[in-house]
## 1
Amino acid sequence: MTDLTYSEEFQYSHKNPYHQRLEAFSQFVFRDSEAEQYRGKWNSDIFKKEAPLILEIGTGYGHFLRDYCRQNPEVNFVGLDYRFKRSFQLAKSLARDEIENYRYLRARGERIEFIFGESELDQLYYFFPDPWPKNPHKKKRLFQEGFIERAHRVLKPGARFYIKTDHRDYGAQMIRLAEESKLFDVELVSLDLHREHPDFWLNSYPTKFEKIFIAKNEPIIGLVLVNKK
Ligand SMILES: C[S@@+](CC[C@H](N)C(=O)[O-])C[C@H]1O[C@@H](n2cnc3c(N)ncnc32)[C@H](O)[C@@H]1O
């Protein structure tokens, strides 16, 4: 079955009460189709500053967004998540922060091609995505061939796509698809990132989910892809 979120005709549903409540944060939160008006114009019209444009899909509780933006004030960072209530809670806490070099999107990762233009992004991050472990649900996983093609289009030539997961089956799927893909080179693949690559820079930005798995001594799978264009 085709996932309609990938099609141009797709309409976001706005019935969730938190959709409305997110309007209170419109100085830094964009919702759904609002975000899509800025396709190809994020640096010029939103950030009003030419800088590396970075996207994180599945921002969750915002740990990476906060830490990365604080330590890299020169970048333009966009965090994206599709959960309404979580987005509202994150927006409430971000509004108290002083960091300014980010925007937040309540949108679906499936829509990246409608949100960003050709070669608009300098980096892409995708950490601890929902694994959809049951067989009938696996088609809901975001990282599929169609998504790889879209990521390839919105990323600049040579841009990196960073992935971390604890989930072996989804991790194996992403590694297999990445290795088979002609659109990306696999620069790094590890089934135990923290032990095999203790000095890897990304280890110093643990997300909320990553901290949970580290505390349980569970290995983190890491994947770094380089866009071939
Ligand atoms: C398991 S949480 C991980 C959150 C965070 N990255 C971390 O590592 O702590 C996965 C997040 O991805 C979001 N998510 C899942 N599928 C998504 C999609 N298709 N588009 C946007 N966000 C999605 C969920 O709402 C959730 O907040």
## 2
Amino acid sequence: MARNKILNIGITGASGSIYAQRLLHYLDASPEVEQINLIITASGVTVVREELGIKISGTKQADVTELLGRTSDKVKLLPAKDIGASIASGSYPVDAMCIVPCSVNTVGMIATGIVRDLVHRAADVTLKEGRKLILVVRETPLNKIHLENLLRLQQAGATIMPAMPAFYHRPKTIIDLVDHFVYRILDHLGISHSQATVWQGRCHE
Ligand SMILES: Cc1cc2nc3c(=O)[nH]c(=O)nc-3n(C[C@H](O)[C@H](O)[C@H](O)COP(=O)(O)O)c2cc1C
């Protein structure tokens, strides 16, 4: 019998931790998701504190409650330093991984096959096992090294989804803007959601 999805979510130290917060909100609520393994890098902790005003440690399950605003049986926090965690092995059955937001530091690490934490290792495993890896990269402007690393990762099988929100749905609030982009991540993770993200053609008003 087919099981529900097991996903890895990495939060790194790029701007845009609200994308991760909203994605976790939807994944936790989805009946199609069985488990979410969450890893937050040390810089990710700093940016979450800075942008969301939430004090997390990156090492304790209580971080999940802080991020979601509720407890969760599905989201399991794995410390970024725990290189021996289950998801460090390709034998662990993960359907996909999304790093959101993804710093250009982490992009560089994955692109060169260097492993310094569990985010890098889990991403490396995702690629080597031929599974879906989504990188919500955020930096601007991008230099030649960033662009070459991103091309290398795209050619290695990763899906590059720069954190570029759209405006054609006429967002009224930051949450409108963020959620529309999060729905596109859900589309790529193969998770159903109630929001129409398919452009229906130009409106003639
Ligand atoms: C408030 C803040 C915002 C940052 N924004 C970005 C960003 O948008 N993109 C980026 O690549 N790095 C950004 N950085 C720098 C990264 O956090 C830094 O390069 C760090 O080493 C990344 O480590 P990690 O990839 O292990 O999370 C930011 C740092 C801080 C403190």
